[in-house]
From TrEMBL:
Pfam families in UniProt: IspD
Keywords, alphabetical: Isoprene biosynthesis, Nucleotidyltransferase, Transferase
GO molecular function, one term: 2-C-methyl-D-erythritol 4-phosphate cytidylyltransferase activity
NCBIfam families to which the protein is assigned, alphabetical: ispD
Enzymatic reactions: 2-C-methyl-D-erythritol 4-phosphate + CTP + H(+) = 4-CDP-2-C-methyl-D-erythritol + diphosphate
Name of the protein in its database record: 2-C-methyl-D-erythritol 4-phosphate cytidylyltransferase
Keyword Nucleotidyltransferase in annotation: yes
Family in the record: Belongs to the IspD/TarI cytidylyltransferase family. IspD subfamily.
Pathway membership: Isoprenoid biosynthesis; isopentenyl diphosphate biosynthesis via DXP pathway; isopentenyl diphosphate from 1-deoxy-D-xylulose 5-phosphate: step 2/6
Gene, per the UniProt record: ispD
Organism: Sulfurisoma sediminicola
EC number: 2.7.7.60
Marked site (Positions MEP for the nucleophilic attack) residue numbers: R161, K213
Single biological process term from Gene Ontology: isopentenyl diphosphate biosynthetic process, methylerythritol 4-phosphate pathway
Length: 233
């Protein structure tokens, strides 16, 4: 039984409001995706890190990835959605990854992932019959928006936060189980949702807020501060 990582990176990142796909935006002197790949490659238990790109991605070769070492392999089979990219990536590695091997799927935009986060997931979910995900309990009060009135959003209800967790990545499941799940439930926003569609209950492994997803322009500044603080320790 082995561990592999898979990073879907075929999206455009339209919410960033930039012309460059989000995964290639500069962060601390490197493309944003470099930081997540470097962390995954630094985890001793992970044998290979597969990056799923769009077939016509011309940006990847414009950057120097030599600092990542030999663990990283590119798959040019990305789809129109995250789920499609993961599914096609899983199919592409079937010759190298066994059905019982673990696959850790990680967002390219979670640049502040730390080795300790990944090791905790492997340690706590590696013996689980289903697998698990990194997540954090919801701390903020949640409001549900109602129908907009005069163009203004208004609160319709307060949603109880007890028992609610915010899903992060990596999300770790066995290759065969995850591929079956995504083929059964292809319209999902994360891998755990597909596993849940099979009637299974993935494990929640506590992480922390530094493992956030860069989504908006201001997030790049926050990610840079986190990475800089780590480098100074």
């Amino acid at each position: 039984m082995s561990y592999f990582a898979l990073v879907p990176a075929a999206g455009s990142g339209s919410r960033m409001g930039r012309g460059l796909p989000k995964q290639y935006l500069p962060l601390a002197g490197r493309p944003l995706i470099f930081h997540a790949l470097a962390t995954l490659a630094a985890v001793a238990a992970i044998e290979k890190v597969f990056v799923v790109l769009a077939p016509d991605d011309a940006e990847w070769q414009r950057h120097d990835w030599s600092g990542l070492g030999e663990k990283v392999a590119v798959l040019r089979c990305g789809g129109d959605t995250r789920a499609a990219s993961v599914t096609q990536g899983l199919r592409a590695v079937m010759g190298d990854v066994a059905a019982e091997d673990w696959v850790l799927v990680h967002d390219a935009a979670r640049a502040c992932l730390a080795v300790a986060h990944v090791e905790a997931l492997i340690r706590e979910a590696g013996a689980d019959p289903v697998g698990g995900i990194l997540a954090v309990p919801v701390a903020d009060t949640l409001k549900q928006a109602g129908e907009a009135v005069d163009g203004m959003n208004r609160i319709a209800a307060t949603v109880p936060r007890e028992g609610l967790w915010q899903a992060q990545t990596p999300q770790m499941f066995r290759h065969g189980m995850l591929l079956d799940a995504l083929e059964f439930a292809p319209v999902v926003t994360d891998e755990a949702s597909a596993i849940e569609a099979l009637g299974l209950k993935p494990r929640l492994v506590p992480a922390d807020a530094t493992n956030f997803k860069v989504t908006y322009p201001l997030d790049l500044h926050l990610a840079e501060l986190i990475l800089a603080s780590r480098s100074q320790r």
